[in-house]
Amino acid sequence: DKNGYEHYMLKEIHEQPHSIGDTFRGRISIDKTKIFLGGIIDVMPKLTQAKRIIIIACGTSWHAGLVGEYLFEEYARIPVEVEYASEFRYRNPIITPDDVIIAISQSGETADTLAAIKMAKKQGATIIGICNVVGSSIPRETHAGVYTHAGIEIGVASTKAFTSQVTVLTMMAFMIGRKRGTLYDELYKKLIHELTLVPEKIDIILKSENYIKGIAEMYKDATNALYLGRGCLFPVALEGALKLKEISYIHAEGYPAAEMKHGPIALIDQNMPVCVIATKDKSYEKIVSNIQEVKARNGIVIAIVTKGDETINNLANHVIEVPDCHESIAPLLTVIPLQIMSYYIALMRGCNVDQPRNLAKSVTVE
Ligand code: F6R
C-alpha cells in the first residue's frame, strides 16, 4: 500500500520522521538521559573492551557503516574498520576473539554479508547484527543485535532503512562512549537530546520537497554528477551518488571534498553539477574553500547548508537548507534532500523508481 504516494520510495522518504522515531522508541529514557539497547546488553563487556570493531556490509548499509566509523571513533574511541563483505570474506582477514564484528543489512539476507560473519564467527569474533527484517538469516547467525524497526522497505533504493541504521549506530556510539568514559555525561545528554529532535527536523526538510523538485528539473539531463562531503558527511556524499546512479542511471561519484583536487577536479566544467554537503561543523571553512574551487572552474554547486548560511548562499548556484544541529546528527538530516532530489530526477527521466533495472531488493547470490 503506497498510502497515496506515487511510489514506495517517496512514501518511504516521507516515513522517515516516524521510522527514526520507531528506531529509538523505548531505547531512550523518557527524561532523555540514557540509551538502552537491550539486544546488545549481553555483549556490552565485549564491546567496551574491544580492541577493534569491524563493520561489514554492502551498498547503502556499507555507507551507514562508514558514518558509524566516524561516530565510534569520535565518541567511543575504539578503532573501527569498515569492510565490503565481499572483499573481507575472500582476503583471509586477520580476526581474533578480541574483535567485535558489526554486520549491517536491511534485508538480513545479503549472501556476502552472511558468509563474512559465518567466517568471522568460526575465528572466535563476537558478531553483532544491525538488521531490519526480523527473523532473517543474518540475525539468526549473530551473538547479539539491534533491529532497526524501520518497517518494511519496498523501494529497491534504500532510504528509511539507511537512516534507521545510522540511528542505531549513533545510539551505540553514544552508549559505548558513555560506558567507556570517553563521552562525558553532559555531552552524552546533549547528544541524546539532539538525536530525539531528528524527526521534527526531518519534517521541516520535507517541506522543501517542491523546491528540491525544482532543482531536480534543472539538472535532470545531466550525464554526470559529483557529490562531496567531509568527515561523517563524506559517507553521505557516497550515499547521495549511489541513490542518483541506481534509480536515474546518471553516472555519479561521491568523494571526500579534499580528494577532489587529486583527480576529479579535472571533470569539472559548466555542465557538471556538484552537490556539496556543507553544514556547519568543524570542517566548515575547508568545505567553503572546496566550493570556491568548484566555482572557479565554472562548476554548478548545489549545496546542502545549515539554515541561514549566508556565505555559501553567496557562492553556490543553489542552496538547500537543513535545520541547525549537532555535527554528529548531520548525516541523518543531510541525506534527506539527496534522496528527494534523486527521486525526482529519476521520475522526470521516466525511470522505474521502485524497481530499477538490474537491481534486486535482496541480493542472495554472491
Ligand atoms: C542501495 C541498495 C543496496 C543495498 C545492498 C545491501 O539503495 O539498496 O546497495 O544497500 O544490496 O543490502 P542489505 O542492506 O539488505 O544487506
TrEMBL record:
Name of the molecule in the record: Glutamine--fructose-6-phosphate aminotransferase [isomerizing]
Domain of life: Bacteria
Active site: K361 (for fru-6p isomerization activity)
GO annotations of cellular component type: cytosol
Gene source species: Plebeiibacterium sediminum
Record-level GO BP terms: carbohydrate metabolic process; fructose 6-phosphate metabolic process; protein N-linked glycosylation; UDP-N-acetylglucosamine metabolic process
Top EC category: transferase
Domain SIS: 43-182, 215-356
Subunit and interaction comment: Homodimer.
Function statement: Catalyzes the first step in hexosamine metabolism, converting fructose-6P into glucosamine-6P using glutamine as a nitrogen source.
Lineage: Bacteria, Pseudomonadati, Bacteroidota, Bacteroidia, Marinilabiliales
The EC number(s) this enzyme carries: 2.6.1.16
Catalytic activity of the protein: D-fructose 6-phosphate + L-glutamine = D-glucosamine 6-phosphate + L-glutamate
Annotated localization: Cytoplasm
Keyword annotations: Aminotransferase, Cytoplasm, Glutamine amidotransferase, Repeat, Transferase
Primary location class: cytoplasm
Extent of the signal sequence: none
GO molecular function terms listed in the Swiss-Prot or TrEMBL record: carbohydrate derivative binding; glutamine-fructose-6-phosphate transaminase (isomerizing) activity
